[in-house]
Every structure is written in C-alpha cells, then in structure tokens.
Design goal:
15% strand; 12 helices; 12 strands; Rossmann fold; 434 Repressor (Amino-terminal Domain); homodimer; 6-stranded parallel sheet; 3 domains; DNA-binding; alpha/beta; 347 residues
DNA sequence: GCACGAGATGTAAACGTTTTCCATTACCCT
DNA sequence: AGGGTAATGGAAAACGTTTACATCTCGTGC
C-alpha cells in the first residue's frame, strides 16, 4: 500500500536522505541553484517535490536573523472607523510583499503617544525587518524614533520638519490644490473657501499652501473666515460647511482636504437647498469610490493608493538592500478629476 | 566614559553571564519563575533589565515550533475599496492579540479562487498558528480547507452548508431583520421591500429569512418584485432603490442588508424628492459611523465589530489551547437602533 | 550517621535552516 | 608528469531559544 505523502512533516533532512545528498546541498539547490550540478539539482528537486517539502520559515528566519516581515501600524481612532484608504494601501502593500515572499504584520493603535509603543514592540522586539508609515505629521515622532534606531522604513507622505533624509512617496498636495483652486478661479469664483485637515498632519500644510498660492497668484485676498480646519470626517465637513454658509459673505466654492469632508459638504448644501456644482462648487481630495456616486458626482484629486502601496514595497525592498534614503524619495503628481460638483459661480 | 547599554545586542547568554547563572536559569526566570529561587530570580531580572534584554522571538518560535502569529485574509475587491468594517474587526483583533503577545499577519486578496492560495501560503508555509475568517459564504471552501488541514481557526459568521462543527461568532441576522421588519409592520407598513446581499454570502440568507418570517407572521404576502439582491455597495443600494420606486406598486419601506446600501437608498429617495422616514422608511444593517450623519439619521442594526474582534481572539486562543469547536460557538443578538429613517407610512 | 527526596541549578540536545570551511575530483596548461 | 584552478559536495558551526535530564546541595526522618 503506497504511503501518501505526509506533506507537513518533511524537513530538509528527509529531503537530503531521499535524494542521497547532504542537507547543505538541498539548501543550496533552493537558495543558490547554480552552485550545484544540474544532475543533483534535478534529483533534489524531485525528492523535494515528492515529499512536498517546504522550508520552514521559522528555521530560515532564525538562521538569517531576519523576520522576513514588514510592519504597519494603522491609526484606528476610538469612536469612529479608520479611513478605508488604509485598507487600500494595505492591499497594495500585500500585493507587493507576497511577491517578495515577505509577510505583512499589522497592528492597530489609537493615534497618539500609545502609537509609539506599538512601534517599539515591533522594532525592539525584532518582529519586523522594516516598516511602512502613513498619515505623517509635520514633525513625526515615529520617523524620529525609527531614524534613531536605524530601522529601515518607508513613508507614505512627508514630514517637513524633519531634515534628516528618509525614503518617502508622496503626492504633491500643494500642486493638486493649487490646480484645483486655479480651476475654480478660472471658472469665475472669487470666494473660495478651504476646509483643511488637522494642522499637525503634514499634508494639511501642503494642501493649504496650494490653496493660498493660487489665491495669491490670482490677486485674491485670503480671508481668514474662509479657511477652516476639519478632522477629515464626513460629519466635520458637514458642520464646517454649514458654518461657511452662515457667514455674512458665504463662499461660492469650497475646497475640502479629503473626500469624506467633501461628502459632508455636499450634504450641508443639499440641506440648505443649494445645488452643488451650480450655486456652490465643491472639490475634494482622494477619489474614494463613493465620489462617483454622489449627486452631483464629486470632483476631486485622485490618489492611487493601491499603486502607491505597491511602489512603497519596492522602495522598502531597495532600502533593505542598502539603497540610500536620498535616492528613495518620490513625489507623484495628482490628477484633478472633474465630475460635476464644480462649476461656474451663478450670475 | 560609561558605555551606554547596547540594547539590541543582548542575548540570553549575555544575561546569564552577567547574572552568573546558566542560560537555562535565565530562560526559567522568564517562563517559569516559580521554578527558581527568589534570590537568583532577582539577580537575573536585574541583569536582564541592565542589559535591556528581550528574548528574540525568532529563537523562541523555532524552538517552540509555533509562529506566534495569527493570520487574516481580507477580501479586497479590485475596482472598489474593501469594506471598512474589516479595519474595525482588525482593530479588535489587534487589541486582543497584542495582549496575548501574538502577531497579526494580514494578507489581502481579491475574493474568489485565488483567495484559497493565500490561505495555503499561510497554512502550508507554517506562517501562522491560527486564522480568523470573515465574510463567510454558505458553503465556504476556506472553512472546508482549514478543517481538512486541521488548522485552528475561528470564524466571523457561519457557513450553514457545512455540518462539521467549527468555532464561530455571529450576529443573529434573522432575528435582527425579523425585528426590523416587525417594527415596520407595526408602524403600519404593508409594502416592505428587501435589498439583500449576494446570495452566496451566508448572512444574506439569514437576513432574508428574518424578513420573510416577519411578513409571514403578519400574514403579509411575499412579493417577488420587492426582494432584490445588491452587492453591498452604496451604488447598488441606490440603483435598486430606484428600481423599487419605479414599480407599479412601490414599497413604503425598504430593508437593506447593510448600511452602505441603505445610504444608497437614501440618496435615491432624495433624488426622487421623497422624504426618508416619512414617505419611505429605510433600515440598514451594521451601524457604520456614517449612519449618525445621514439625513435623516439612519435606523439600523448595530454590529459591535471591534468587540467581536476581541472576542474572536479569545475564542481562537481557547481553540489553540484545545477547547473543542462545539464549545466555541456564539450568536450575539443585534440591537435595533432607531434614528429617524423609519416612520409610519403616510396616509 | 546515612539514605532519601525535594529543590535549585547546570549541561546539552533539540528546533530547521544557511553558510563557512574543507575535501575531493576533474580539468587544463605547461 | 605535475601543479594550479574550478566545480562540486559534505561536515559542522552557527542563529537564540526551551526543556529533558543530570547533578548538586540540603534538610529530614529513621
């Protein structure tokens, strides 16, 4: 009676025995095939296949001194759901990593000081070889920590108050919002408001700067009461838009630092009986799937999160291979997508 | 000049030397403290602290033959974002796991046959000790696969066509939708429609059954044209609601199998100039954060995803410790939250 | 006074790899 | 023929733990 292969129990020793070679040779066949003659290579591969051999990652990792794992800490706020853009990024990271045979270790943590503890656990506990960060702050303590501990990492976004070089991939938010504001101004708007992100977030500054620059270039004054700071939630977009509409001189166009807030803005307009894209224009940022389905469809700046995730993996692998940080800094150009929530001001 | 402790390089041998004991004793102090005398225990702990020693998980894992890791595969569809409820579940899982010192390995995969490959990689590659599944189908191949390979796992949701026992935690969707439908009927609705989930999803059946049962119990006929199947996206809720409104006899109330579709329903109503909660009632399922902020606020059935994540970890740990699957099956009762999108039918 | 058990510690083997040396063989060139 | 070199494969030492087993030291009961 033929024994069915017990695929779970084959180790390198069994394969070596089966192929009539030493375990060193088996290992070489798998890691360094050209170091071994074609004939024995064939023999070993056959034996391995016959036994259903898969190298045990635990042994490999100990021997190599690497965890073969990349870590991500997702900021998950207490009261509300984390932005689903993280899932999108995760998907991109996962695609890239599985290709490279690396694992993705995910932790969630409420944003704040406790966050750093998660990083410590991953780094000082030697659980990961590298990290991916997102949602950077202007002077991001996580980056400082990782730089200090010399842990390889890549960043989605920049951290403008840190001058030591580190690898990052960012979208040019200034350019994006400058373009968006220019577009609105070209349509004839003179009263363009801005609902920004929490000011400690790095991209908040860029997007604001793009807005200011466009106004400046057009010779329009910057009115303080038209520049508000939201918390990126739909609800805050809603609330702040109502506040804008209640001003003595309400704006005719609103730039929102993300789509979620733009959705809130659309809701506020609707509630006030104002037609978005006609009476008041709205432009968001991110291009979340929902943006297709609002009424009117939301004009926004596209961020290709999944692609960015894939690229971040490539950069991290390069970093792990020794590429200097300076050579791993990319800024992508966002794409302004006009769908209908923008339009010329009325009369 | 005092050398600062090089925290990254201390291994168990160094600690042993520093404390003047053997490495076995150091290990015992950490894993089995009562096996060693108070005096030496103290000495070892001090030495460990002085050197900043942290056991290297790679060594532990190899020795223990466990990856100390739990895996999750998130279905991330190509075109659109994955449901953010997964992030919420992830947060709950993470909280539970970090308490237990386990890592969370996350993979994403488009739903479908390729999904199983991800599971194989995790399981046959010995990368995880256990798994968490979610978004189950009626006869879920992933569960069959894991049962066959005798891998410990727990499930968020059930899989009704699988009769072998396995550990799960589910919300009683039938009861939830029965209650929701009863509520609408009690308000006076006689034309209650149902926008369901893809029928292969296990919970789709339960929610539908609850709806049918409530109608039956009230002696109301089940009209086929009022029972539709969506894909859980906002857009499909929108589209199907329009279809319902175009019927010769449109419903006065709509039950949606998730909140995202309910949001779409609200949008469709608004577009048709119908007041939700007055002219047409809508009830969703999940209680996503957005449900607070719709107009009117969305009535829905609450699912405590984060808590469920935490509980799932406890169950998985129990499972890993040998608790039989039969003792790890829980069904929680959902809570109907009335916010305003439901109301009596007009006239 | 002595065997005995309990308690505390040390020794060494294991976990499954990769990789550094060596040893052997074969080959080529002079 | 002899010596250098390349190709090939094996032996053994890591990697950092945990743990079975052996050893040693006491106190204790006889």
């Amino acid at each position: 009676m033929p024994r069915s292969p017990a695929p779970t129990s084959a180790d390198i020793r069994k394969v070596a025995q089966e192929a009539g070679v030493s375990i060193a040779t088996v290992s070489r066949v798998l890691n360094n095939p050209q170091r071994v003659s074609a004939a024995t290579r064939e023999r070993v591969l056959e034996a391995a296949a016959r036994l259903g051999y898969r190298p045990n990652p635990l042994g490999q990792r100990l021997r190599k001194g690497r965890a073969e794992t990349v870590g991500v800490v997702i900021p998950a706020p207490q009261g509300r759901f984390a932005d689903s853009f993280f899932l999108e990024l995760l998907a991109g990271l996962g695609e890239g990593l599985s290709g490279a045979g690396l694992d993705l270790l995910v932790t969630t943590s409420p944003p704040g000081p406790q966050e750093l503890a998660s990083y410590q656990r991953l780094v000082e506990g030697k659980r990961v070889d590298g990290l991916v960060l997102a949602r950077t702050r202007q002077r991001d303590e996580r980056i400082l920590y990782l730089l200090e501990h010399k842990v390889p990492f890549v960043v989605h976004g920049r951290s403008d108050l840190i001058h030591e070089p580190f690898p990052y991939l960012d979208i040019d938010g200034e350019r994006g919002f400058r373009q968006a504001a220019q577009h609105l101004i070209a349509l004839g708007h003179r009263a363009v408001a801005f609902i920004g992100a929490p000011h400690e977030l790095n991209f908040a500054q860029h997007r604001l700067a793009g807005y200011r620059r466009a106004l400046e270039e057009a010779g329009l004054p910057l009115r303080r009461e038209w520049v508000l700071e939201g918390d990126l939630s739909e609800e805050s977009g809603y609330r702040l838009t109502l506040a804008l509409l209640d001003l003595p001189r309400p704006p005719t166009a609103i730039l929102c630092a993300n789509d979620l807030m733009a959705l809130g803005a659309l809701r506020a307009l609707r509630e006030r009986g104002l037609k978005a894209g006609q009476e008041v224009s709205v432009i968001g940022y991110d291009d979340i799937p929902q943006a297709h389905y609002t009424d009117p469809p939301l004009s926004t700046l596209h961020q290709p999160f999944r692609e960015m995730g894939r690229r971040l993996v490539e950069m991290l692998l390069a970093r792990l291979a020794g590429t200097p940080a300076e050579e791993l800094q990319e800024i992508w150009v966002p794409e302004l997508i006009l769908r209908g929530s923008d339009g010329p001001p009325q009369s």
